[in-house]
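Forwarding the complex inputs:
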Amino acid sequence: MATIKDVAARSGISIKTVSRVLNGADTVRPNIRAKVEQAIRELQYRPALAARQLVTGRSFIIVLLVPDTAHWYYSMMVQAMAQACRSVGWHLVVETFDRQALEEDEHWSIGLSCDADAVIVLPPWSDHPRMLPSLERLGLPAVRIAGRVPGYGMLLKVHDRDVARQLVEHLIAQGHQRIAMIAPPSDQLSSEERHLGYRDAMAAAGLDVPDAFVFRSTMLFESGAEAFRQLMSLPVRPTAFFAVNDATALGAMTTALRLGFRVPQDLAFAGFDNSPESRYAFPSLTTADQPFEQIARQAVLMAIGRDEEQVETPRRIILRESSQSAL
Amino acid sequence: MATIKDVAARSGISIKTVSRVLNGADTVRPNIRAKVEQAIRELQYRPALAARQLVTGRSFIIVLLVPDTAHWYYSMMVQAMAQACRSVGWHLVVETFDRQALEEDEHWSIGLSCDADAVIVLPPWSDHPRMLPSLERLGLPAVRIAGRVPGYGMLLKVHDRDVARQLVEHLIAQGHQRIAMIAPPSDQLSSEERHLGYRDAMAAAGLDVPDAFVFRSTMLFESGAEAFRQLMSLPVRPTAFFAVNDATALGAMTTALRLGFRVPQDLAFAGFDNSPESRYAFPSLTTADQPFEQIARQAVLMAIGRDEEQVETPRRIILRESSQSAL
DNA sequence: TTGTATGCGTTATCAG
DNA sequence: CTGATAACGCATACAA
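Prediction (whole assembly, four chains):
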């Protein structure tokens, strides 16, 4: 591996000036710069990040903490964050953490593979009781996406309430009156806005929401199936289902199909996320977009301490087969 | 930030000995070790990775190169790799690359956020003509998963041929004789074994494979839909479809359902991957497991230069609704 | 078993 | 505009 010294020697220029060229200083004469750049090419020199980091104390690395699960949501976030980092000249390092260890080990701590300048945490971990002190111990600027619990780090609010309301309004416009919600776990505050949006729409339309119409799910497919069975065993059954995410919506919908219900003629379903599963299902699932790019960009800007004007992009609901029919 | 010096000062022990404790040397007396450990706790000391890296030249970091796509396959790999790294005391850093830049920029090069000791590449990028020289330029030990093209780095072979054969044998056992394949692009060698397995099964059963029965797809959902339309417009139509992956299988299957075909009574489908979509679909999709853990473990061992005995875990086919019925 | 001195590759200080 | 030189935090050869 060639070092900066080698480059200096080969080009006959001092180390300091080579460093200047490397860091894009404008106080270097063009012909000198050219010489240096040629030497760099010839030696295939690449600066040692570790050394640079040691002396500057900065790495320009943001760590994104993701759980050890293969969920579509997380890979979308990874992609969006990587893109956002690139666009501001920073780097993204994805660090997975062991969910089991987090739950079981009282002294659990974030393990970082390399020195970073900031950390970003995703829901629902943004509010996890062991995550907060661990972030604090790191001592790095931290952005907690969709976090709700006050504490260490910056909270990036995600506003799902209005889109959720739009989705339920759509179901109402299709003629549904008894609309049930497959809701997030009651301790998962980050998704609670979807529940509130549901109640907004119902209230605005003067529709009743019996307590039993709100099923607290685990947000997993199986839980959606369970929700469907439970809600359909009520004396007064719902005719439409609004789910906190696509996974539970599909769990409910496929259970309905297996039992012989027709979708959307007999029952309507709407999810949330616009996951590939929602697009590929038959009937395809009505759902709502997640503003991944916007969230990622804002998170990265917050993380690196550049607080730009936040442009709220309008949210979009995606109407598909699972909800489109008159009753 | 506390340094090793601070720890030494506080505990009244020399730097060298503190370093010994940190690196788990066994030549330190227990009471001294205890003192050092207490000082570390009190100061919340954490060794600076950059400094350690600078002097040892090693980072114990493996970089996993993933494209900027949110595909389930990649997130499974990320998870499995992270786990495999942890189990050998190494770290995984996920580095996303810009597919568009890779395709368009003739001088494209892998951009690493931090110094790594090895790199792992996933299919189909393991064989990409711009990936190979870029890996070589990095000069790090590289593992190319499911790679086929000779060149820089180590090739980790993935043997899908036999499972693919089993899957097709299952379709044959269900009474199907005209079985079409939604195949990988002909230049994607990493998935070609699935095609070969299909031909194995057909040949062994003495079944004919007209050229038109092998549709070269892009491996995306829409391409599966296109494949179905094309294959069903043949004078002699297939009754079963074996797809190179779940995405194309679902593309074909949902198209069939939309056109009023019954699955599996009229037509049978099998995919490959065991993705969430395959489980959540209705009818649920017959498919095959991917040995993520095994591949990840082996890749990591190869990357760090520990060549252990490779235990081939048996592959598993997953029989679901989309294929299970007598004709 | 412990302490001291040196160097890893880079940036930054300060004098030319 | 340029060039010596001192850090940065840690590991290690070498000496005690």
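Chain A touches chain B through 52 residues (CB under 8 Å).
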